[in-house]
Amino acid sequence: MKHYIKTVLLRTGVLDYVRFIYNGLRGISLDAVYVENQYRSNGLPDGYPVPPMKLVFLVIGSPWAYEYWLSGLKIVDDISDHIQSTSCGNGVNKRILDFGCGCGRLTRHLTRFKGARIYGSDYNPVLIEWCSKNLTFGEFSLNNSEPPLKYESGTFDLVIARSVFTHLGFDSQQRWMEELYRVLSSQGILYFTTHGRNLIRYLNEREVQTFDSDELVVQYQQLEGDNKCTSFESKNWVIKHLQGNFEFVNFIEGKSDKHLQQDAYIFRKP
Predict the structure, then answer these.
(1) Is it the case that residue 173 has pLDDT exceeding 50?
(2) For residues 173 and 262, what is the distance between their CA atoms, to the nearest angstrom?
(3) Which end of the chain is more exposed for a tag (fewer CB within 10 A), N or C?
């Protein structure tokens, strides 16, 4: 039923308006309103500006600055913990790319990697323009919906692709995996996420069967690259179709925390 309603709203062109209102009201409280007002009036704790509500909503599906800040903080905490807990953690503090950076939800927290040069790339020119103007610690570039990126081979020691492959179909996922391999340095680390078993509650019975058969499930593939296009893949599917020439380092299954529900993978370029 949810899938049918979403399809109807999408076809009538009002899905984004409904999501904006629904997600904006969900979980609202007096404390949240107070924090929101403080962030909008005084800026975020790192001293950099808050993106406009429409950009925040475009990236995270919620318009609130406090959600943008706290979710980014929690996600980068998690990324940092998992990278540092492996043998990979010592060499990632040189050049870091936030691929699919949006309006900098994660990018602004990557300054914790001391001494690193921070880069961001996204296919939306409005988001890149905002980041370039306001997140002056980083270097941002516009990419196309297809490879290549505007970087030399071997440029980065760490590439983060959080909630990127989650909105791509089979061919695009493979092409971008090959491209991220290219721009990583030797021993460079790729951290990326997918919708895994923790999120199959959003699938219908037929799609669950497809997922359980270790096949890719893609909803609204005609909107590939947009948040409305959603892909789901098992660990077996990822290893078979996306690992390629990478070395597998770690798999982190999605958690119950709403900001950490996606499966995460750490691959290394030999």
Answers:
(1) yes
(2) 16
(3) N
